[in-house]
Specification:
Layout: H1 2-12, H2 15-49, H3 53-81, H4 83-101, H5 107-135, H6 141-169, H7 172-181, H8 189-196, H9 201-213, H10 225-258, H11 264-292, H12 294-314, H13 319-335, H14 340-347, H15 353-368, H16 370-378, H17 384-405
Helix pairs in contact: 2-3, 2-4, 2-5, 2-6, 2-7, 2-8, 2-10, 3-4, 3-5, 3-15, 3-16, 4-5, 4-8, 5-14, 5-15, 6-7, 6-11, 6-14, 10-15, 10-16, 10-17, 11-12, 11-13, 12-13, 12-17, 14-15, 16-17
Length: 418
């Protein structure tokens, strides 16, 4: 049943739906590669530059903070200029600045290029998920956005493979630069988007109605009394999800290498199990999001992920047990995001859908961006694993509370200007 429903709707999709799905999937995959590749380099840069854990966290946080701003701006521009046009711009932007990161020679320079990269990184998800949500039928919206979300695991997996291959053949001093330079390759996706992906009908109709009526909604409408509660709670939901995710994934390679004393090859093996679990978690959660509802799925995955993070980082376990726990950890840690794009699109009317989704998700990213640097800071006073567990566990409590207070939106029909 699960595998059948995951594939049947894709086979029945129109050509427009398939090309948009391909573009959004590819865009988010390279988004993941360009972001996650830095997490593999932290031990090398600490050794090469004498960079501290706090500085490493600040660089990660700088990219996440700028991505929050970029995501909101991209959402606003997508409501004005179109989803497809802004999607192209965001992909090109983060690819170029990832490439430029390979030429840096100090933590300060890398902070600058990674911060600039973040603007495109944040914008791509905001625009791509809105485009998919508006193009796909309501009964399959959760699965479609979830499939796009699963591409994060693909990009993460490619980053892990590239890390293992490049570090096996080059010295660490050169390998990290090569990995950043590889980030330019996905810029070719812009050509595909420009040639094959069409604008959503809902967006076109909404702009036509706004033009004919001589009025329109500004992005600040998401703070109007009718939408303010939704905006606040959705922002908290996104904060909890991303705070936990970034606390774990930013520091996990370092935790495995420094506290578990794993080699580069063994670290890659542990991460591979985690990544495979993540990919299947995205797809399963996408299915459950349409079957059980958005809120129930968020709560289920938050509770399970919180328990697993504690087990993974706080409880004395053997390396073999840790290897097997990596699969469910990745499954729930990543799978929780699958319903988010559809949920945010369903919470806001089309005239401010990009603005609302861009703000809420990226507000969460901005606050969640503080978690890596806080983990790095507190790791001076406690074991790194303990710091990861404390911040991730607290973040998942926020997810559960926010989900309980938001409305269920499964199956909602999206209409122009509504």
């Amino acid at each position: 049943m699960f595998l059948s429903e995951q594939t049947d709707w894709i086979r029945e999709a129109s050509r427009q739906e398939k090309t948009a799905l391909t573009a959004a999937f590819g865009g988010y995959a390279v988004d993941a590669f360009d972001y996650m590749i830095y997490t593999f380099m932290i031990p090398t840069l600490i050794a090469t530059w004498g960079m501290t854990g706090t500085e490493a966290g600040v660089i990660a946080t700088g990219a996440l903070l700028s991505s929050a701003i970029g995501g909101w701006i991209a959402g606003i521009l997508a409501d004005r200029l179109g989803r497809v046009r802004i999607l192209q711009l965001t992909v090109l932007w983060f690819a170029v600045f990832t490439f430029l990161s390979g030429f840096t020679n100090s933590p300060g320079q890398l902070l600058l290029t990674r911060t600039m990269q973040g603007f495109g990184f944040g914008g791509e998800w905001s625009v791509g998920s809105v485009l998919i949500a508006e193009l796909i039928r309501p009964e399959h919206r959760g699965k479609a956005v979830g499939v796009v979300q699963s591409s994060w695991a693909v990009g993460w997996g490619v980053a892990a493979a590239a890390y293992a291959i490049v570090y096996s053949g080059l010295s660490p001093e050169l390998a990290w630069r090569v990995l950043f330079w590889l980030g330019l390759i996905p810029a070719g996706l812009v050509v595909f988007i420009r040639r094959y992906v069409n604008e959503s009908k809902i967006f076109a109709e909404t702009r036509a109605q706004m033009s004919s009526s001589g009025g329109g909604a500004g992005f600040l409408e998401i703070f109007a009394p009718s939408l303010l509660k939704t905006t606040i709670l959705a922002s908290l939901l996104a904060t909890g999800m991303q705070g936990a995710y970034y606390a774990v994934t930013t520091w996990l390679p370092t935790y495995l290498k420094t506290e578990r004393n794993l080699s580069v090859l063994n670290t890659g093996s542990y991460l591979l199990v985690l990544i495979v679990g993540s990919f299947l978690g995205y797809l399963t959660s996408a299915y459950l999001s349409d079957r059980l509802g958005r809120r129930s799925c968020f709560i289920l995955f938050a509770v399970a992920a919180g328990v697993l993070v504690i087990l993974y980082t706080q409880i004395p376990i053997t390396d073999t047990v840790m290897l097997f726990l990596g699969f469910p950890l990745g499954f729930f840690l990543s799978g929780i995001f699958s319903g988010m794009g559809a949920f945010l699109s369903e919470l806001f009317p089309s005239r401010v859908r990009g603005s609302g989704q861009g703000f809420c998700y990226n507000f969460g990213r901005a606050v969640g961006a503080l978690f890596p640097v806080l983990v790095g800071y507190f790791s001076k006073r406690m074991p790194l694993g303990e710091a990861i567990g404390i911040f991730a566990g607290g973040a998942y409590m926020i997810v559960v509370a926010a989900a309980l207070m938001l409305p269920e939106t499964r199956g909602k029909t999206l209409v122009a200007f509504g």
